[in-house]
Amino acid sequence: MGKTLFEKIWEKHIVKTIDDGPSVLYIDKHLIHEVTSPQAFAGIEKRGLQLFRPKQIVATADHNVPTLDQHLPIKEQLSRMQVDTLIKNCANHGIELYGLGHPYQGIVHVIGPELGITQPGMTIVCGDSHTSTHGAFGSIAFGIGTSEVEMVFATQCLLQTKPKQMRINVEGELREGVLSKDIVLYILAKISASGATGYAVEYAGSTIRNLSMEARMTVCNMSIEMGARCGLIAPDETTFEYVYGRNFAPEGIEWIKALQYWQTLYSDDDATFDAEINIDAADITPMITYGTNPGMGIGVNQLVPLGQSLDIKDRPSFAKAMEYMGIEPGSAIRGQKIDYVFIGSCTNSRIEDLRLVADFVKGKHKADEVEVWIVPGSKQVEQQAIEEGIDKIFEEAGFQLRQPGCSACLGMNEDKIPAGKYCISTSNRNFEGRQGAGARTLLASPLTAAAAAITGRVTDVSELLAGYN
Questions:
Q1: For residues 158 and 155, what is the distance between their CA atoms, to the nearest angstrom?
Q2: What are phi and psi of 148, to 5 degrees?
Q3: What is the rounded distance in angstroms from the CA atom of residue 26 to the CA atom of residue 122?
Q4: Angle 315-317-323 (CA atoms, 0-180°, nearest 5)?
Q5: Distance of CA 442 to CAs 185, 210, 328, 400, 464, Å?
Q6: What angle do CA 135, 140, 146 make, to 5 degrees?
Q7: How far apart are alpha carbons 113 and 246 in whole angstroms?
């Protein structure tokens, strides 16, 4: 019987299988940042242990960093303490740190791929739930807790139970104005925020194969939002071309050897999955969320659901979400007034995202009542945007191009949305208080967010692209 892509990578990394228990899984790359690593460092130091393989660890500062005036001391005391602790821990344990001021600094799930650290066939972990981003390269990548961070520090291995496997096939051509973010929000709306719980999800089909690497990363990034342990896409020529020549990619004969292995990483024709879902790309329209989990999404032109259509057990949480969001069940989301637009996060802050937005807003200006933050995912993205003149386009449109960091994806730094204000965000979560106490978050693609920035309201970007007013 054939093997799935996931099985091929999993089996290659098993150190030991425990009878009726988990497997000891070898970890190729361990990514860390300032939020989930301090307790793990303290744990190994308390036990008198050394890091087993510090050269396989890469660190950056992203969650707590400000996105303005990064050359100045961090204002928030807790944020400053966490970043300073990361600097000290990395120095004490011989770990490469891309901190503030370093040309490689950025969001951990942006810098891994752009530096060529992320490669097909790897196992990759990070104390961050959106580690599934790296699965876009055909790797098994997943988030871990602080105690597991400590385990990898000490052994370069993890105890892991093999998940079930799901394949989501998306076939056909996307409509105008529909991006990879719309694909994953559509999947979430279809199967719910718990629809892939306990699964490793492989995304396949012609639509997925036709996506760029940056678009594939957006899809895999939000696998955790449907409950999946990880998400992955089989590597192909698009993958290989992206990795080739990057800072830490293999070179010469090592590249040839790596490529020969990477070309075997696909699900065999006779491989079996525990579940399969088939989606027609033509059914996907520009999407937006209306509630307080990423599965509460609809097409921009659709009406918010009525609570009566839900299972009785789901009605109280639905009512609570509608009250928090200030949205009426059965109403139109299109036309909803917007106060803030945030384009950034590990989901949508790469150069391709910024180029898409710049192309759309060139010659236009934001609505007067909307504040727009564009936050690049890394120093390299920021520099590239400046070299291409994208910063000037944003400036003329009234958008603020800030400095790299997680920013308004989560309320851990200075970039918070005020209570009661509506923010269209290209990030991955719309939980209560995620972007600041009382903030109301609507998740959408970079194009849908940009359209709202120009009009001041939730807008069908496909109509603007077609020349409508």
A1: 8
A2: -75, -35
A3: 10
A4: 100
A5: 11, 27, 15, 20, 20
A6: 105
A7: 9
Q: How many other CB atoms are there within 10 angstroms of residue 469's CB atom?
A: 5
Domains of the chain and CATH, by start: 5-277 (3.30.499.10), 287-465 (3.30.499.10)
* pLDDT, one tens digit for every residue, the chain (469 residues): 899 999 999 999 999 998 888 999 999 999 999 999 999 999 999 999 999 999 999 999 999 999 999 999 999 999 999 999 999 999 999 999 999 999 999 999 999 999 999 999 999 999 999 999 999 999 999 999 999 999 999 999 999 999 999 999 999 999 999 999 999 999 999 999 999 999 999 999 999 999 999 999 999 999 999 999 999 999 999 999 999 999 999 999 999 999 999 999 999 999 999 999 999 999 999 999 999 999 999 999 999 999 877 777 888 999 999 999 999 999 999 999 999 999 999 999 999 999 999 999 999 999 999 999 999 999 999 999 999 999 999 999 999 999 999 999 998 999 999 999 999 999 999 999 999 999 999 999 999 999 999 999 999 999 999 754 3
Q: What residue type is assigned to position 67 of the chain?
A: T
Q: Check if the beta carbon of residue 29 is closer than 8 Å to that of residue 118.
A: yes
Compute and round to an integer the Cα radius of gyration of the chain.
21
Distance CA 123, CA 140 (A): 5
CB-based contact 57:90 (threshold 8 Å): no
* Strand locations in 257-332 (E): 275-280, 287-289, 297-299
Amino acid in position 26? Y
For residue 331, the 8-state DSSP code is -
